[in-house]
Amino acid sequence: MGLHPYVISCSVLFVLCVGCSAPDDTVATRASFESGAAGNSVNGGNSGAGGRPASGPSGGMSGVASGRAGGGAGGINASGGTPSRGDAGAGMTSAGAGAGGAASGSCGTRTTLRGKTSRTVMVGGMARTFIAYLPQSLSPTTPVPLVYVFHGATQTGANMYEMTEYSTLADKENIAVVFPDGQGTSSATGAGNLAPWSVSDGPALCGAGTLVNNLNAVDLPFLDGIRAEMQTDQCIDPAHVFATGFSMGGYFSHHIACDRPDFRAAAPHSGATMADLSSCKTKHVPMIIFHGLGDSLISAGCSDPNAPQQAGFPASATLWAEKNGCQSTYKTILEPGSTPGKDGNCYLYDGCPADGQVELCTFADMPHAWAGAASCPGCIGSGAGYASATQLQWDFFKKYAW
Length: 402
Description:
Blueprint: E1 28-29, H1 30-34, E2 93-94, E3 115-123, E4 126-134, E5 144-150, H2 157-164, H3 166-173, E6 176-180, H4 219-233, E7 236-246, H5 248-259, E8 265-269, E9 287-292, H6 316-324, E10 330-335, E11 344-349, E12 358-363, H7 389-400
Parallel strand pairs: 1-10, 2-3, 5-6, 5-7, 7-8, 8-9, 9-12
Antiparallel strand pairs: 3-4, 4-6, 10-11, 11-12
């Protein structure tokens, strides 16, 4: 799960924030922002301008809404059609330990491992596992985006495959996706671990992250092992590599955005970060951050400056907006769920540089769960009926990180 329930008994300051969404008079729908202008995306998407002005309180996340101007970039040409999820291959195929990556200047040389496959790579003498998904329609030699999807404590990569439904989006958008297993976890056996990721180089973290930070700092090299393995099967577009994750995977996504300049953007969900990003190795990083306002495990205040804050820890949305050079004002975009009453608000920061847009999406009353997940194994509560965090983050990547 995101974090095991007994972690709640630890002496960490958690603040439950319910109903911290912006007032109705500051909200416009995403459609109103995105209507009126054609957008660009991997497969042709929407962007645009429009929307109505809105003002917010001064300080923190306050602002004036104008239109949500569209960005995005050109697409990917992949050969073949786009099969259904079932056509892409439901069976798990194993690649041998240490199968290795492609030689320098070579990629897409192995064409047998398509669809959903189970992989093992050797990193620092340790066998590490992950699930990979490659649409059958992809030409192996066509460079495509790569998305890393990280699980929470006691979860596995297999749980994230089920929760996020990223494989369905991959078939539609022609992208490669990987679901790594953290330290001491296994998708094959279902084994989980309270501390699956090394999520800090030392500084304390908002919420419970410090308590379950794995001190064995071997996870960033694991990312390289995964990419080398994937390069054997599919050419990867190095300019469009992204990270997302839930709970401790959300913490790890923040860590990657701070320390890995080779990742283009990140989308942490129900996680948190340290109190100061000045030590980060990266420059501007497009960030979209997700949090349920009913999260009783990782306080919404770790992400949302409108929620009660943990002492000494500014909200991560504030930290990333400051790091990227954004203004403190925002545009509010209503994200209605598929179930009445399960609405979200996305706050798109104003004045961000072209390579550093920041957005925060919060969901009324949603607990510690992935927004929009019909099934959420290992979560605390359910995100069903809310807008899909998977679709929202991919739309963000296409528009602001291309």
